[in-house]
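Weekly sync notes, structure subgroup
Attendees: PM, AL, DS (notes)

Item 1: joint prediction request from the bench team. They want all two components modeled as one assembly rather than separately. Inputs as received:
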Amino acid sequence: DQQVKQNSPSLSVQEGRISILNCDYTNSMFDYFLWYKKYPAEGPTFLISISSIKDKNEDGRFTVFLNKSAKHLSLHIVPSQPGDSAVYFCAASAEGDKIIFGKGTRLHILP
Amino acid sequence: DTAVSQTPKYLVTQMGNDKSIKCEQNLGHDTMYWYKQDSKKFLKIMFSYNNKELIINETVPNRFSPKSPDKAHLNLHINSLELGDSAVYFCASSLAVRGLSSYEQYFGPGTRLTVT
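Output from the run, pasted for the record:
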């Protein structure tokens, strides 16, 4: 039972353009959402998070949007850079509970 | 300085053996975790310790036993290894906030376990 779904296994984006990674969730009790980035042979690195009381959180080139009614969140990266090529994991949790991770989306930034 | 470190990075062993993976964090965090990333790439939590106390124990075979000698260390011991145990195991740590779980976890580099 996948509570956090990342339906695109991979995404290719031209350098300098916007990358949009999508994530859907099924558990309406989730109240905190995170994005992690992972390079090969390394552990995931925290990128950005958002609480369910907000619909947008921005940190430099990274913005996360949350649509609670649609149970959908997205990560926007603009402008995309070569170093952004990695696997991005969406994750969610309900207060006092564990974090549930999605399967990840591999982002390729093309020169 | 490595924040969360794991040893070994690679581990190849035969079925039936017993092995351990060690994890240490120097972030001063109160909570540590073990995750398993299987062949389907899902990252799933196995255990969580807060100040040496077990707080999350997912449906994991009892061949897996975590040990936390202090809050900076969380080791994973696996008895009678099976082929299906082959995976990448990640250790992580976080500050304990909002009850039992914290939301920004710092991960180690992973240990790739291959059981033959």
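Discussion: Residues 20 and 77 of chain B are 4 Å apart (CA to CA).
Action: AL to compare against the crosslinking data before next sync.
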